[in-house]
């Protein structure tokens, strides 16, 4: 997954884009059952303790609900599962926070879904790519 866009000019945004790419690469391999437990543990370090997700259906999940859901989804997908990230846009960057919008396209068993995601990242020098996910809002998009 390679993304070229204006967000890569801001250091924190560049780190957030790298985090988006790395997390989605991990999710694909985790859901296919090819990622390792060490990679899962590394992914845990990329989420803030107060991380929350607003799902495309409107449900609000905190980190305490998200982590066991992801962990339990190991190997749950078929070989035909792909996630692509596109149309990344920097919305705001200041101090130790950056807000990005991107489109996540999933291909699963012959079906493509798309969701527009808005993600807030905080700078964190201890995190693998220097940022942690603080909040993620996903909204379904029509596919045509």
Secondary structure layout:
Layout: H1 11-32, H2 37-44, E1 47-54, E2 60-62, H3 63-72, E3 81-94, E4 97-108, E5 111-123, E6 131-141
Parallel strand pairs: 1-6
Antiparallel strand pairs: 1-2, 3-4, 4-5, 5-6
Commentary on this structure:
It comes from Kaistia geumhonensis. This is DUF4440 domain-containing protein. The protein has helices spanning 11-32, 37-44, 63-72; strands at residues 47-54, 60-62, 81-94, 97-108, 111-123, 131-141. It has 3 helices and 6 strands; from the N terminus they run H-H-E-E-H-E-E-E-E. It has 144 residues and is an alpha+beta fold.
- Gross geometry: globular
Cα Rg? 15 Å
- Terminal Cα span: 22 Å
Give the strand tally. Answer: 6
Helix/strand order, N-terminal first: HHEEHEEEE
Q: Count the DSSP helices.
A: 3
**Unreliable parts:** none
Q: Tell me what portion of residues adopts beta-strand conformation.
A: 35-45%
In which range does the helix fraction lie? 25-40%
Task: Give the tags.
42% strand, UCP029394, 28% helix, alpha+beta, 144 residues
Gist of the model:
With 144 residues, the protein is α+β, with helices and mostly antiparallel strands.
């Amino acid at each position: 997954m390679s993304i070229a866009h204006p967000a890569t000019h801001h250091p924190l945004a560049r780190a957030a884009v790298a985090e988006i790419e790395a997390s989605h690469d991990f999710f694909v391999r985790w859901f296919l059952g090819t990622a390792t437990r060490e990679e899962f543990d590394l992914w845990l370090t990329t989420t803030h303790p107060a991380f929350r997700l607003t799902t495309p259906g409107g449900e609000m999940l905190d980190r305490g609900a998200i982590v066991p859901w992801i962990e339990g989804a190991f190997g749950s997908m078929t070989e035909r599962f792909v996630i692509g990230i596109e149309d990344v846009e920097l919305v705001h960057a200041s101090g130790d926070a950056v807000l990005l919008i991107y489109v996540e396209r999933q291909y699963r068993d012959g079906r493509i879904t798309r969701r527009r995601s808005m993600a807030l990242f905080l700078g964190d020098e201890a995190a693998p790519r220097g940022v942690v996910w603080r909040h993620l809002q996903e909204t379904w998009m029509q596919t045509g």
